[in-house]
C-alpha cells in the first residue's frame, strides 16, 4: 500500500501564519513549532488509520474509509464529519476551516493544507 508507514517531520513552510489563521494562541503555536511530529499511517484497501504523535505527548488519530463519511478530529481536538476522497493518488479532505491533501512522493509524505490564501506544507521522511 502506498501510504503505509511511519514518517518524521523533515521540513515545514508557513507554519506560523497557517496556525495563526486557524486561531491558535501564540503559546500553542510556539510549542508546536518546536515539537517533532511522527506520523503513522495504516492503510488496508480504502480504510485508513492516520495518527500524529508530537514530542510533547499530543496524539491525534483519524480513522476513515475513502468515499464514506467519517468522524474526524482537527489539530485542536474539534470533532467533525467529513468524506475523505482519493484524487490522483492523493488523500483529500476538507476540514472545517481548511483544505488538506496528502500524498507519498518517493520516501516522503507531503501534507498540504490551505486556509484563506495561506498554504502550509509539511514534508516528512519515511522511517519505516
Short note summarizing the structure:
This protein is mainly beta. 12% of the residues lie in helices and 58% in strands. It has helices spanning 15-21, 26-33, and strands at 5-13, 37-44, 47-54, 59-65, 69-73, 79-83, 85-87, 90-94, 99-105, 108-115, 118-126.
Fold topology:
Blueprint: E1 5-13, H1 15-21, H2 26-33, E2 37-44, E3 47-54, E4 59-65, E5 69-73, E6 79-83, E7 85-87, E8 90-94, E9 99-105, E10 108-115, E11 118-126
Antiparallel strand pairs: 1-2, 1-11, 2-3, 3-4, 5-6, 7-8, 8-9, 9-10, 10-11
Helix pairs in contact: 1-2
Q: Which key terms come to mind for this protein?
A:
128 residues, two-stranded antiparallel sheet, 2 helices, mainly beta
Element-by-element helix/strand order: EHHEEEEEEEEEE
Strand order, sheet with most strands: 4-3-2-1-11-10-9-8-7
| Rg, alpha carbons | 14 Å
Residue stretches low in confidence (pLDDT < 50, at least 5 long) are none
* Oligomerization state: single chain
Task: Tell me the number of strands.
Answer: 11
Tell me the major beta sheet.
Answer: 9 strands, antiparallel
How many H/I helices? 2
Strand proportion, as a percent range, falls in over 45%
Instruction: Give the termini separation.
Output: 13 Å
Mean pLDDT: 92
